[in-house]
Amino acid sequence: MIRMLIPLLVFGALVGLLIAGLKTGDERKLVQSPLIGKPVPEFELPGLHDPDVLRSRDDLLGRPFILNVWGSWCWACRAEHPFVERLGREAGIALVGFNWKDERSDALEWIDRFGDAWDFHLVDYEGRVAIDLGVYGAPETFLVDHRGIIRHKHIGPIDATVFDDLMRRILQLEAEAGT
Amino acid sequence: MTTNLQQAARPLAWLLILLLSGSVLGSAIEPYDFESELQEKRFQALAEELRCTVCQNQSLADSDAPLARDLRQELFRMLQDGRSDLEIRQFMVDRYGEFVLYRPPVAGHTLLLWGGPLALLLIGLIAAVIVIRKRRQAL
Question: Which of B:64-103 have CB within 8 Å of A?
Fold first, then answer.
């Protein structure tokens, strides 16, 4: 009698495994960045409003900052924009836009329409620096500490929950920076 | 009757031809100026075993996503620079993690992945042997 139950148990275990798989499906799609805990890669990128100004990694060091990857083509960036604006107002640290694989005119038009929430932008239209950053979609949001180490990366749009989580982490980075 | 059938089959045959040619034309690879046939082969091989992170479950070779195009460009540049396959794979892993490798390395944390199928096969074989023996005894 017990032996008859074995296939049923195996079947039950398999169903359990598949249900667990369904639930964590979205999580598994996110690629954990191997760059967390590593320094921001070297770069030199022009600005969006100021294309003549080149900013490098060293220009950003000393204070923690938020690096927010966006593009005018990116639908989810519109969805997260209210929270990006809140970050700009409430975070208390620099909010850097990383305008990725876009076109200047489109990006400027987008900003005219939805508002410029960022302190300044880095423009990467070839996507070379984005590869070094391990960017694979927009929006993505990186938190970088005052020593230039990538401490956190959020993939996908920021919502209320993510915003709270980011703010908590930002406070910690500020505390570490001693400001 | 046969002619009717043939007539009916003709559009289907055309559809098939169209679909097949489409898949050839739709190949995502841009024309690159390879230095040698070997370099081209290495490019193809690497592009096929690296995963496109945006459109997961497609390889870099299959994907038409802008990021996949950038990564192929980068791949080509590194081949031109004379970097080894190992270095190129490491470059991708450093940025996107082991997830980009369609062939993950054999290591402690991938033991189940690589050894799992073999273990299941062994369990199945052992179970089969036991069942067959028992049935023979019963006869």
Answer: 66-67, 70-71, 74, 93-97, 99-100
Q: Tell me the DSSP string of A60-82.
A: HTTS-EEEEEE-TT-HHHHHHHH
Tell me what the pLDDT averaged over chain B comes to: 83
The residues of chain A scoring below 50 in pLDDT are: none
- A7 and A50 in a single domain? The answer is no
CB contact under 8 A, A136 and B96: yes
Residue A129: its pLDDT value, please? Answer: 95
Q: Do A25 and A39 share a domain, yes or no?
A: no
Same domain membership, residue A23 and residue A59? no
Q: Using a CB-CB distance cutoff of 8 angstroms, which residues of chain A are in contact with residue B100?
A: 31
Are A82 and A9 found together in one domain?
no
CA distance A133 to A67: 11
- CB neighbour burial string for A78-115, b if at least 16 within 10 angstroms, e if fewer: eebbbbbbbbbeebebbbbbbbbbbeeeebbebbeeee
Look at A131 and B93 and tell me if their CB atoms are within 8 Å: no
pTM above 0.80, yes or no: no
Which residues on chain B are in Cβ contact (under 8 Å) with A134?
Answer: 95-97
Please answer yes or no on whether A34 and B96 come within 8 Å at the CB atom. Answer: yes
Q: Which residue segment(s) compose the domain that A67 sits in?
A: 34-177
What is the ipTM score, two decimals? Answer: 0.78
